[in-house]
Amino acid sequence: MKKIMFMVAACAAMVACNNGKTTTNADSTDSVTQDSVAAVDSAVYEGMTPAADVAGIKYRVALAKDSSNGFNVSEAYMKSDSEADTVYNYTGNYVVLKKDVKGKENTYYQFDLGKDNKVNFLVVNDSTLRLVNTDFEEPATNSKDMNYDLKLK
């Protein structure tokens, strides 16, 4: 009986320690999570970035435009241009960073997407965010097929 109770407690602890990350399949959507930030005055950016093992990663980033700096990020790993395989949703507070990269001061948004997973976006202009690496460097690509930009919707 003690072993069964221990297993139940261990399972409950694993569910409770999900770090704000939810997983859904392509057929279901987590509209409550996505709309919680979008319901307030927010800016929503969307775009698909290249990926090695899937057709691309479709990002949807909703930023609260108030002092809370709240965010909702959806990462959809795409089977094709229109069909998602796995979707991850994250919420929290983003950090605004000013960094001098290659002699130019830029503004970046940093999102904590779970354990040791921080994602950085360069604020290109009022309507574009660009995915950058951990050193805040832009992707080295000139191809239109390799687009790392998210556009304001």
Give a verbal description of the structure:
With 153 residues, the chain is an alpha+beta fold. The chain is built from 2 helices and 10 strands. It has helices at 2-16, 31-38; strands at 22-25, 42-49, 56-64, 70-78, 84-93, 95-101, 104-112, 118-125, 128-132, 149-152. The protein has a 10-stranded antiparallel sheet, covered by helices on one side. Keywords: Signal. It comes from Prevotella fusca JCM 17724. This is Copper resistance protein NlpE N-terminal domain-containing protein.
Summed up:
The chain has 153 residues and is of the alpha+beta class. It has helices at 2-16, 31-38; strands at 22-25, 42-49, 56-64, 70-78, 84-93, 95-101, 104-112, 118-125, 128-132, 149-152.
So, CATH architecture?
A: Beta Barrel
Roughly how many Å is the radius of gyration? 18 Å
What's the main sheet like?
Answer: 10 strands, antiparallel
User: What are the secondary-structure elements, in order, as H or E?
Assistant: HEHEEEEEEEEE
Signal peptide: 1-18
Keywords: Signal
Protein name: Copper resistance protein NlpE N-terminal domain-containing protein
InterPro entries: Cu-R_lipoprotein_NlpE (IPR007298)
Task: List key phrases describing it.
153 residues; alpha+beta; Lipocalin; 10 strands; 48% strand; Cu-R_lipoprotein_NlpE; Copper resistance protein NlpE N-terminal domain-containing protein
Could you give the topology of this structure?
Layout (H helix, E strand, L loop, with lengths): L1 H15 L5 E4 L5 H8 L3 E8 L6 E9 L5 E9 L5 E10 L1 E7 L2 E9 L5 E8 L2 E5 L16 E4 L1
InterPro entries: Cu-R_lipoprotein_NlpE
Protein name: Copper resistance protein NlpE N-terminal domain-containing protein
Keywords: Signal
